[in-house]
Amino acid sequence: MRLLVIEDDPELNRQISQALEAAGYAVDRALEGREAVFLGETEPYDAAILDMGLPGLDGLSVLQQWRDGGVATPVLVLTARDRWNDKVLAFDAGADDYVSKPFHMEELLARLRALLRRSAGHASNVLACGPVRLDVGAARVTVDGAEVRLTSHEFRLLSYLMHHPGKTISRTELVEHIYDQDFDRDSNTIEVFIGRLRRKLGVEIIETVRGLGYRILVHAPGQLAGKTAT
After folding, report:
1. Strand runs labelled E in the chain
2. Looking at the structure, do residues 22 and 111 belong to the same domain, yes or no?
3. Membrane spanning segments where (predicted)?
4. How many structural domains is the chain composed of?
5. Boundary-marking domain end, from 85, 120, 155
6. According to the model, what pLDDT value does residue 225 have?
7. How far apart are CA 117 and CA 125, in angstroms?
8. Considering the entire predicted model, what is its pTM?
9. Per-residue pLDDT tens over the stretch 125-169
């Protein structure tokens, strides 16, 4: 999952970004409003954390421009303002959640997980497919209860697929959602990661849709399909 953090305090921006990266997300950063508008309009983020008190173009204006332009990215507003009318303005402009400064990083991460769950239509932090369980909160994957060690990119790839069960997802879309903006992207590496995931999981829950991409099979435990092409 790929996120955008917009916060004009460089140190706080760095702290939030590092916490998100440690939790398994790909993160892009912006320090001012105009850059945020551009990134939100041109990059396919799964969610954004948006500070209201930005210099120049403030966060409320950024949010309004996104929504007016059809950008539907879920937005968690982060601000030092805690008056009820400020919250109303943010929600009316299209915010999906609101966290006041100062805040605990654990709360920010929990609210973000809930926001991503709601946007994908999930009720729990634990995503399941057959014997495979992906705990978004703990950034942990298990198969039949045994933990499976994944690299950060393997985890992001599996997480994105499992957030969209049954949907065929192209290599291009996967590249856009598991790498941050500065990463040297190569869609050919997706095939490599898929192969590694299949070997590590040991069960066939990732289906290749030839010429289109990949999808997570939607099966009950004990009803997994047979082998698929790598």
Report:
1. 2-6, 26-30, 47-51, 75-79, 97-100, 126-129, 132-135, 140-143, 146-148, 206-209, 213-216
2. yes
3. none
4. 2
5. 120
6. 39
7. 7
8. 0.77
9. 899 998 999 999 888 999 999 999 999 999 999 999 999 999 999
